[in-house]
Amino acid sequence: MKKFLACVLAATLLSATVQAQQVQPIDGIAVVVDEGVILQSELDRAVGNIRAQYAGRAAQLPPPDVLERQVAERLVLLKLQVARAEATGVRVSDQEVDQAIAGIAGQNRASVEQLRAQLAADGTSFDQFRDSIRDELLVQRLRQRFAQTQVSVSDAEVDAALEAQQATGQQYHLAHILVALPEGATPEQIATGEEKILGIKSLLDRGEMDFAAAAVRYSDSPNALEGGDLGWRGENEIPAAFANLVRQMAPGQVTAPIRGPSGFQLLQLVETRDAGQGGPSVVTQVRASHILIRVDENTSAAEAKAQADTLHARIVGGADFAALAREHSEDPSSQAAGGDLGWFTPDQFGPDFGAQVSALADSAVSTPFRTQAGWHIVQRTGTREADVGNENQRAQARETIGRRKLEEEWNQFLREMRGEAFVDFRTGNATADAAETAPEAPATGD
């Protein structure tokens, strides 16, 4: 459990921005962000958490002033995203926060009270933890709304991706280092950025630092503190400007500096693997119907559960499931069909829903259970083995193209939001000018 909590706190301590006033009666302001502030205690706590993650590897971290600025920028970006989410009507209820926390505890086979005790032992207040979870949920929903309105994938793009996958059948594990340039960079800024990226490349070529350590120390990318890791990607998930380069690289190889819209980059091919051609084509599908009672601002979790319990009792007593679904279900996509969801794989509607459906025999009805949407009653009506190879491949291709497009559009959205914000670094080393936030370029001579 402690190992998992360390991972959770790695994210949440970076986003605890509300309760710091309760930690110290008097606290300095580290950064002013539009109408809000980041307190020095918040920044110190977040920096301390990063140092704890790199215990035993402190040499990989940048100098203290650079690390502080990196962490401060993360906090700034998080605060801007939360503010944008709230300004555009994104809401997260207390019940949803409670459910997320219960999920974290459940993943660790612990109760919420045990989670609370572990947080206290690690020096984190439960209120701070709740606020950080709320912030994460707000940002997730902002990103989901952005994806729904800004990202689309055509059938032609899916066809091209499948053709490319059949030709190569490869996936690529990538990492990158970014030396960012501002929009409308001056010739002097471009020259400075180019000098720095060449210096980093020279450092790598001489073997004085590995790629991940160099990313932590020098990269301006948001994933710098993760060693620049971009994860596994299919060829259709790699921007066209890089795809031809990656295809010709050997594992461990690093590209020459590449100029892109956000600045200069170095790209490393970490390793490759067979894409598996979309996985097995024959899968087990179930057919089920459900009744959903939503939890929202008008219906509390207790009220929704009480209504679901009443409906379940009526079903057990012989009432027609489909008739009750048409009358009471709050799922507009299935209500008119008597709650019928059609054929689907058990995990299609999330792990909680899938676990309930998988545990049922055909024709059986579940007891009421809770998901993020609300309280459900499910009746499983059938099971089959289906060949969905082509369908799966197209769905996976559509999803990976969408992820790539979302990443590109979202990063551009974040850069624009950051550029439009009023940000004033007040205290500590974070007051350095943006041009001074990264170490000077390593020497390029012998």
The DSSP helix count reads 14
Count of DSSP strands: 11
Order of helices and strands: HEEHHHHHHEHHEHEEEHHEHEEHE
Instruction: Note the main sheet.
Output: 4 strands, antiparallel
Structural class: alpha+beta
For the terminal residues, how far apart are their CA atoms? 48 Å
- What Rg do the Cα atoms give? 25 Å
- The percentage helix is 40-55%
Measured by DSSP, the beta-strand proportion falls in 15-25%
Principal-axis shape: globular
Please state the average pLDDT score: 82
Strand order of the largest sheet: 4-3-6-5
pLDDT < 50 runs, ≥5 residues: 1-25, 430-446
What would your notes on this structure say?
- It contains 14 helices and 11 strands.
- With 446 residues, it is an alpha+beta fold.
- Residues 1-25 and 430-446 have low confidence and may be disordered.
- GO terms for molecular function: peptidyl-prolyl cis-trans isomerase activity.
- Residues 1-20 form the signal peptide.
- Residues 169-271, 283-382 form the PpiC domain.
